[in-house]
Amino acid sequence: MRVVLAEKPSVARELASFLGATQRHDGYYEGRGYQVTWALGHLVTLKEPQDYEPALKQWSLETLPFVPERFGLKPLDKKGAGKQLAVVRRLFRTADELIAATDAGREGELIFPYIVELTGCAGKPARRLWLNSLTREAIRAAFGCLRPLSDYDALYAAARCRNEADWVVGLNATRYYTVRYRAGGLLWSVGVETLPRGHVDYSCGRSVKPTTSF
Predict the structure, then answer these.
(1) Does the structure show a pLDDT above 80 at 65?
(2) pLDDT tens digit string along 127-176?
(3) Residues β-bridged to residue 74
């Protein structure tokens, strides 16, 4: 059985229709030797400091900066994610081959390896479906030239580097500014994803325009 992982339910539906996987189950489609499932965008995220050391749940300047020796993964805590991850894990572990059909791009390249790692399926044969359109012609062409995951190692490395850098900068900076300037119990959200898009809002009402892009 080949298991195809799409990034969203809507994409999974189109792929399942093309493949003839017309049997609808809870969390996936099945048929003609394929099981097509989805990731709800993200199902896996980086662990938080308290996942490494419970004492770090308490925010303090003395514990900063915190950078784990090796970044660990955990299920994303959002509605429906745990249930869908359980479906994906079950399908992955019984599959003969995995096909990554997440969105074409850096962000999509991160989703599949994270799920494979957390589900303990890193040793499974796997290939990449690189899809830029959901027309039947584009889907047919993409399935006709499935590529080894290794062809996208550089893109995955860039995605993971970005994700971990965002964690290091965002988590440590957010904790530092929130604790250092704890006025009115406000949370100061700072991070790689926040800085390039505009100003960082401070509790005193001022705004500081960032001079460095990440």
Answers:
(1) yes
(2) 999 999 999 999 999 999 999 999 999 999 999 999 999 999 999 999 99
(3) 45
Name the β-bridge partners of 2. Answer: 34, 97
Q: How far, in Å, are 31, 43, 72, 179 from residue 87 at the CA level?
A: 16, 11, 21, 40
Q: Compute φ and ψ for 187, nearest 5 degrees.
A: -100, 125
Compute the distance between CA of residue 68 and CA of residue 85 in angstroms, rounded to an integer.
Answer: 25
Residue 44 is predicted with a pLDDT of: 97
Mean per-residue pLDDT, 168-189: 85
Angle at CA 158, nearest 5°, toward 40 and 91?
35
- The CATH code of the domain that includes 155 is 3.40.50.140
Sign of torsion over alpha carbons 210, 211, 213, 214: negative
pLDDT tens for 189-207 read 776 554 443 333 333 333 3
Across the strands, what pairs with 30? Answer: 23, 35
What CA–CA distance (Å, rounded) separates 125 from 181? 51
- Structural domain of residue 67, as residue ranges? 2-170
Which position has the token pair 């949370």? Answer: 187
**C-alpha atoms less than 13 angstroms from C-alpha of 153 in its C-beta half-sphere:** 3
Domain for residue 92, yes or no? Answer: yes
Length reported for the chain: 214
